[in-house]
Structures are given as structure tokens and as C-alpha cells.
């Protein structure tokens, strides 16, 4: 029996798909901003902080990188209420995504910090700059330029991973796709369209990040 493609339902589904895409974009914007900030602080603390802090960050990184994201999400959304901590689904999703992304980007940022020659730090200190000034003005900009391609890829991966949060009823793109195919019974067409939307989001996000990186960090960012 042949299968006839039917995209006639799409006209009435544009709003739902657009809302889902907007929620996906919101999730990745918040995750990228907060996750990158945490990764910079974590990478700096892991290299220059006290021993206890270094070990705590190391444990956090290993736990988050060696457990499934879905389990982390369920722990936050379903597990924390047992301790009296209840989060709205979208807040739980943002927290889970941020913590997961930061664990990976701590290692990425750390590799960039290690790539900056030690002599530059010593020279800046010799000129009278404070350690914090050396880190912010000398070391960090060079480190970000080195690791920017890897950081960009991690952001895109996290955006794609956001599909998992549909499991806790966050109305992002995959959630809306599930609802649409349940109402229309056109699974192939629904997921084909949503796949194309994800592809467009990924390509647009990567292009935006590369363009922004070149403006902020200068030439050489790709």
C-alpha cells in the first residue's frame, strides 16, 4: 500500500512550530550565557583555586560528563521535589542544560587557558597588573580565541540536546512536533519539517556565533 505525502496541515501548524522554535532559542540563549560564565569561573577555579575547590570542580565535571543528560534532567525535575525543591519545567530544563553544558565547556575553556604561554602572565605581573587583571585582560581573551570553534560546536550540540526536555513537558520544538503528529497522524511529514527547522536553527546559530566571535575576538575565529 502506497503512502501519500500530505503537507496540507502545515498551514495551521506554523504557529505551534514557531512557538516551539522560539522556546528552543530561549533555552539555548540562557544556557549559553550562564553556562559559558560558569565554565570560565570553573576553569579558573580548577587551575588557580584552593585544593578543595579544585577537587569539587573536578568531581562535578566527571559526574556531569559521565551520566546521561536525561537522567540529570529527571533528577532535577522529579528528584528535587522530594527535598522540597520544585521547579517549573522550563526552569528545570534551563538548570539541567546549563549544568550539563558548563561541565563540558569547563574542560574546553581550561584547554584554552593552558594554551596561553606562561611567560605572558609573568610579564604582566612584572608590569604591575593584578592577577585578576592579568586573567581578564591578557589570558582570557587569548584563550577564548583559541577555543572558540570548539565552544561554538558545544553550543550547537546543546541546542540539539534541548529536544530531550520535551520529556518534562517543556513546549519546545520537539514537544510541539510530538503534539502535531499525535493530532494529524502525519508522523513522517511532521518530523521531516521539524528536522528542517532544527537544521536551519543549527546553521543559523553557528553562523551567528562565528560572526559575533569575529567582531568580539578579531580575525582568525572560524
Mean pLDDT: 92
Q: Give the N-terminus to C-terminus distance in angstroms.
A: 49 Å
Order of helices and strands: HHHHHHHH
User: Given the helix and strand composition, which structural class is it?
Assistant: mainly alpha
Uncertain ranges: none
What does this entry look like structurally?
With 222 residues, this protein is mainly alpha-helical. The protein contains eight helices and no strands. The chain has helices at residues 10-48, 51-65, 69-79, 89-115, 118-126, 131-161, 173-184, 187-217. The model has no long low-confidence stretch (mean pLDDT 92).
Which characteristics define this entry?
MetI-like fold, elongated, mainly alpha, 222 residues
Task: Produce the secondary structure layout.
Layout: H1 10-48, H2 51-65, H3 69-79, H4 89-115, H5 118-126, H6 131-161, H7 173-184, H8 187-217
Helix pairs in contact: 1-2, 1-4, 1-6, 1-7, 1-8, 2-4, 3-4, 4-6, 5-6, 6-8, 7-8
Amino acid at each position: 500500500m502506497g503512502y501519500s505525502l500530505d503537507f496540507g496541515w502545515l498551514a495551521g501548524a506554523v504557529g505551534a512550530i514557531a512557538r516551539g522554535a522560539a522556546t528552543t532559542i530561549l533555552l539555548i540563549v540562557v544556557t549559553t550565557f550562564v553556562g559559558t560564565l560558569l565554565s570560565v569561573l570553573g576553569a579558573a577555579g580548577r587551575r588557580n583555586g584552593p585544593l578543595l575547590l579544585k577537587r569539587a570542580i573536578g568531581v562535578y565535571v566527571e559526574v556531569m560528563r559521565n551520566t546521561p543528560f536525561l537522567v540529570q534532567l529527571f533528577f532535577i525535575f522529579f528528584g528535587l521535589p522530594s527535598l522540597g525543591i520544585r521547579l517549573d519545567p522550563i526552569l528545570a530544563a534551563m538548570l539541567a542544560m546549563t549544568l550539563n553544558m558548563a561541565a563540558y565547556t569547563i574542560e574546553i575553556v581550561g584547554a584554552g587557558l593552558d594554551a596561553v604561554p606562561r611567560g605572558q602572565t609573568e610579564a604582566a605581573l612584572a608590569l604591575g597588573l593584578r592577577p585578576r587583571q592579568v586573567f581578564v585582560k591578557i589570558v582570557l581573551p587569548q584563550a577564548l580565541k583559541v577555543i572558540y570553534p570548539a565552544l561554538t560546536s558545544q553550543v550547537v550540540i546543546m541546542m540539539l540536546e534541548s529536544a530531550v526536555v520535551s520529556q518534562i513537558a517543556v513546549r519546545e520544538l520537539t514537544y510541539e512536533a510530538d503534539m502535531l503528529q499525535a493530532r494529524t497522524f502525519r508522523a513522517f511529514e511532521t518530523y521531516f519539517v521539524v528536522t528542517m527547522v532544527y537544521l536551519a536553527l543549527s546553521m543559523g546559530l553557528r553562523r551567528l556565533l562565528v560572526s559575533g566571535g569575529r567582531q568580539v575576538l578579531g580575525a582568525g575565529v572560524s
